[in-house]
């Protein structure tokens, strides 16, 4: 038996329970890990609250982490017992002392990257990469808008986009987060609790708008985000921390011939080769210092409920990690 967080009913952070579970042995193509660090993401909240559907109840939350391989199943040849690996994938289950995963979903973690850093960047870093390089290709001279610029993905988006030569506009909720966003490469920071972000973006861009908006906030910012786009701009809605946006009539996009997409990470790393290439690129950005990863809050795995509560109440900045 090992300890894990279990959810028996959907609801608030209080439904996260610390319990004994049976893991079993890895089957063909599987690997058993002893987790060293577990990343917390808003997708974990979406599953817990029912925004995203879980396969069944009870379940163990979590999609990313770093662990040491303790056993391998039949047919696993490219991952060895004792190796430290990172992952960001489903099925859910990383909020556990030990975890069984498919070998094809694991990538070796370079020795130069601390497991806590590795656990904090797999989902957020791979997401940042596909958002900037595949979903919409950001190039020098582009002006982009990043909501929640001091959050886990937002921090990485600002840094990576700045390194690509883009002008970065970010929205945050307070002055402390504004200072962090500036450090992370935001050229213009908008405190949305003090000023209207649409009017400010219009002022910054001299009425031209931005090439792309990266919006993980959802309902509260969606319409304003569309208003910030230039002609033929791209609206990338990749989260809904404030709630699911209202339905969008196609006619609202026609006013400026806008593009709208709702992407997910799993559709941008379909094959193992794609995953290894993306992870290698991400790790190189971290090792070279292009990306400075902010792990501002760590919690014991047993206190996952407190971590979720702080995340939802916007008390955290950067990445949140659970330690088994």
How would you explain this protein's 3D organization?
The protein has 324 residues and is an alpha/beta fold. The protein folds into two domains: 2-122 and 270-323, Quinone Oxidoreductase, Chain A, domain 1 (Alpha-Beta Complex), CATH 3.90.180.10; 140-262, Rossmann fold. It is built from nine helices and 15 strands. The strands form three sheets. Strands 3, 4, 5, 6, 7, 14 and 15 form a seven-stranded mixed beta sheet that branches. A six-stranded parallel beta sheet has the order 10-9-8-11-12-13, with helices on both faces. The chain starts with a strand and ends with a strand. Residues 11-322 form the Enoyl reductase (ER) domain. GO terms for molecular function: mRNA 3'-UTR AU-rich region binding; NADPH binding; quinone reductase (NADPH) activity.
In terms of topology, how is this protein built?
Blueprint: E1 2-7, E2 16-21, E3 30-40, H1 42-49, E4 64-72, E5 84-88, E6 98-102, E7 106-108, H2 115-135, E8 143-146, H3 152-163, E9 167-172, H4 175-183, E10 188-191, H5 197-204, E11 210-215, H6 222-228, E12 229-237, H7 250-254, E13 259-261, H8 272-288, E14 295-300, H9 304-312, E15 319-323
Parallel strand pairs: 8-9, 8-11, 9-10, 11-12, 12-13, 14-15
Antiparallel strand pairs: 1-2, 3-4, 3-6, 3-15, 4-5, 5-7
Helix pairs in contact: 2-3, 2-8, 5-6
What would you call the structural class? alpha/beta
CATH topology of the largest domain: Quinone Oxidoreductase, Chain A, domain 1
Total discrete domains: 2
- The total of helices stands at 9
State the distance separating the first and last CA atoms. 14 Å
In the CATH hierarchy, the architecture of the largest domain is Alpha-Beta Complex
């Amino acid at each position: 038996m090992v300890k894990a967080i279990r959810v028996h009913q959907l609801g608030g952070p209080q439904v996260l329970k610390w319990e004994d579970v049976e893991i079993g042995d890895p089957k063909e193509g599987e690997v058993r890990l002893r987790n060293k660090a577990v990343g917390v993401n808003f997708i974990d909240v979406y599953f817990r609250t029912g925004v995203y559907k879980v396969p069944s109840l009870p379940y163990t939350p979590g999609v990313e982490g770093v662990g040491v391989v303790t056993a391998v199943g039949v047919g696993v040849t490219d991952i060895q017992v004792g190796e430290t690996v990172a992952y960001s994938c489903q099925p859910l289950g990383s909020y556990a002392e030990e975890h069984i995963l498919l070998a094809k979903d694991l990538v070796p973690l370079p020795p130069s990257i601390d497991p806590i850093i590795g656990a904090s960047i797999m989902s957020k870093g791979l997401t940042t990469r596909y958002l900037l390089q595949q979903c919409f290709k950001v190039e020098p001279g582009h002006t982009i808008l990043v909501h929640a610029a001091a959050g886990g993905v937002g921090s990485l988006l600002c840094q990576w986009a700045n390194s690509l030569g883009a002008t970065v506009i970010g929205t945050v909720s307070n002055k402390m987060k504004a200072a962090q966003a500036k450090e992370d490469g935001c050229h213009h920071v908008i405190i949305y609790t003090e000023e209207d972000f649409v009017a400010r973006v219009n002022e910054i861009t001299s009425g031209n708008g931005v090439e792309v908006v990266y919006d993980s906030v959802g309902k509260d910012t969606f319409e304003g985000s569309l208003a910030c786009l230039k002609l033929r701009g791209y609206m990338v809605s990749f989260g809904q921390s404030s709630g699911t946006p209202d339905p969008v009539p196609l006619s609202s996009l026609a006013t400026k011939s806008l593009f709208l997409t709702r992407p997910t990470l799993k559709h941008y790393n379909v094959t193992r080769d794609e995953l290894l290439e993306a992870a290698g690129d991400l790790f190189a950005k971290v090792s070279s210092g292009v990306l400075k990863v902010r792990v501002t809050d760590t919690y014991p795995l047993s206190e996952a409920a407190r971590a979720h509560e702080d995340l939802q109440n916007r008390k955290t900045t950067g990445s949140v990690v659970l330690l088994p």
